[in-house]
Amino acid sequence: xxxxxxxxxxxxxxxxxxxRTAEGNHLCTTNLDVRDRLLREICDLFDQGYDWxxxxxxxxxxxxxxxxxxxxxxxxxxxxxxxxxxxYKWLHTTxxxxxxxxIHVLHNWVAEQVAISHPGKKVYYLAYIPxxxxxxxxxxxxxxxxxxxxxxxxxMLDAWSGKVSAMTLYKIWWDMSWVYGYGPDPTPKExxxxxxxxxxxxxxxxYNGGDANCWGLNGxxxxxxxxxxxxxxxxxxxxxxxxFHGVYGDAGEQMVDFFxxxxxxxxxxxxLLPDAAHGESxxxxxxxxxxxxxxxLLKKAESVGVSGHAADNLRMTRIALDYLQxxxxxxxxxxxxxxxxxxxxxxxxxxxxxxxxxxRHMILxxxxxxxxxxxxxxxxxxxxxxxxxxxxxxxxxxxxxxxxH
Length: 405
Description:
Shape: globular
Number of strands: 11
Distance between the termini: 6 Å
Radius of gyration: 25 Å
Order of helices and strands: EEHEHHHHHEEHEHEHHHHHHHHEEEE
Largest sheet: 7 strands, mixed
Strand order of the largest sheet: 10-7-6-5-4-3-11
Structural class: alpha/beta
C-alpha cells in the first residue's frame, strides 16, 4: 500500500505518538479497508499467473498504536532501558511469549480468502522479527500457507512445524554486507549437514539471501549445495572431489589438497563483533600461517601447467587467494603500526596498502569478458544482481512474487 494514499485515507496508516503518519509506510492492521485492499492486491498478483505470493511486514516494522490494534496483543517493541542490552534475548523471550497477533490474524485471514478464490495457490508467509514466532491464537494456519523462516534457529522449526503445512528458510550463507564480507564462508560439510537437517525437519526450500560471491574459494560449496538440494543424501566428499577434477583438470589432485587445507575447520571460526572491520575478520579467520600454507599449495597446482577452462578456473582461485593475502597483510601491517609508531612500520603499512590498491585497480579495470569468467556472480562490468532464489529441496520450485507492507 503506497504512502500516496495518505492524503485521502490517513486512517489506513499507523497511529504513532497520537497521530496518523505515512512515514515508513506502516499500516493500521485492524482497519477493514486495509484488510480488504491487501486481499485485493494479492489476488491481482495471483491473477497475473503467480503460483506463490509473499505477504509480510516490512523490515523495520513499527506497530500501530490505535486502540483496536493494541487490543489485539501485548506487543512491546524492543527498549534497552526495559529489556536490557541483549536484543536477541528480547526476540526469543518477549516476542515469543507475546506474538504480534494483529499481524498473524490479518495475514491468516487473507490466506483463508485466497484458498477460496484461488485454490492451489500458495501464500508465502514471512516469519521475521515481529512474526518470528507463530501465533498463540491460531492453532493451525490456513493450509495454503508456506512459512518462510528468517534467520532460523532449531526452536523456530519446532515452533512452526505443527502450525503450517510447509516451511522454507531464508538462509544467509553468503552476504558481503555482513561481518564475514568477501571470502570463503561455510564449508561443504556444514552446508550438506544443514540441508540434510532441514530436509529431516520438513523444510521444502531455501531462499539463498545475499550474493554467491568469491567463486574462486567458495565454488566447491556452491556445487555441494546445488547437488545436495536435489538429493540431500549425496556424499559431500565425493561431490567436492568431482568438482575439483571437473573444474581444475589435471591440477585437480593438487586442488584437493588446497581445499582440504582451507576446510580443516568451520569457516566461521574466530567470529568477531558485528562492528569489526572486514580486514580484522579475515585476519582472525585466515591467520598468516594458514595463508602461507594455502599459497604453497596453490603454487603446486599452478606448476602443473593446465590450459583452457582449467587454467581459467585456477586463475579465478588465484585472484581470490591474492585478495585474502593482500587484505590480511595490510591489516597486520596496520595492527603493527598501531603498536609501534615507527618510520619502518609506517613504511611497511604504506607498502601493503599500495600493493592492495594495485590489486584493486587491476580488478576494477579487467576486461569485461575476463571479469565475467573470474566473477560469475557479477552480472556486468559495473553491476551486481540479487542472487536470492527459492530453491526447492528435492526439486520443488515455484514462480514467486515477494510483496511487503
